[in-house]
Amino acid sequence: MRAATLPVFAALMALAVPATAQDREVPYWASIRASELNMRVGPSADYKIAWVYHRAGLPVRVLRVMEGWRLIEDPDGEKGWVVARLLSPDRTAIVTEGSPAAMRAAPDSSSEVKWRLEAGVTGALGECNSGWCELQLDDRSGWVEESRLWGDDGD
To answer: Which part of the chain is the SH3b domain (predicted)?
Structure first.
């Protein structure tokens, strides 16, 4: 009988790994995985929908973790609860309001400007240091001043 319980135990352990992997120290950064995501006023599908996102890749800050739900803050400062499985650990950043942000060839203000990014442009966030972050937009990449991005702790 002991040998029969081993596969059951192994299956239960495999199911526990994803839940454990989601337990991270808050706050942390994530991005929206789904093409549609409901933000609710509480951590359950029984709560009213406060906002619906239609933008996969949008960066969010996770403020609290509760049994498969995450309290997030979006780039506009809105806060609410979303289903954890619809968030991705992939780091992204969004260009903040103001004049177009220069995307440069190197992390230096005297470096060549490759593109100018309008507010609201979102891309994959690379490394950030000395006030600059590497940003990937499809087949384009470069460096943007960290102060022009939301999605990193230096903002």
So the answer is: 27-91
How many CB atoms lie under 10 A from the CB of residue 100? 14
CA pair distance 50, 14, nearest whole angstrom: 34
As to burial, measured by CB atoms within 10 angstroms (0-12 exposed, 13-18 middle, 19+ buried), residue 86 is middle
Which CATH number among 1.10.357.20, 2.30.30.40, 3.40.630.30, 1.10.3720.10 corresponds to the domain 24-90?
Answer: 2.30.30.40
Tens place of pLDDT per residue across the chain (155 aa): 445 544 444 444 444 434 444 567 999 999 999 999 999 999 999 999 999 999 999 999 999 999 999 999 999 999 999 999 999 999 999 999 999 999 999 999 999 999 999 999 999 999 999 999 999 999 999 999 999 999 988 64
Across the strands, what pairs with 64? 71
Q: Give the CATH fold of the 93-150 domain.
A: SH3 type barrels. (2.30.30)
Which three-class secondary structure state does DSSP give residue 91?
coil
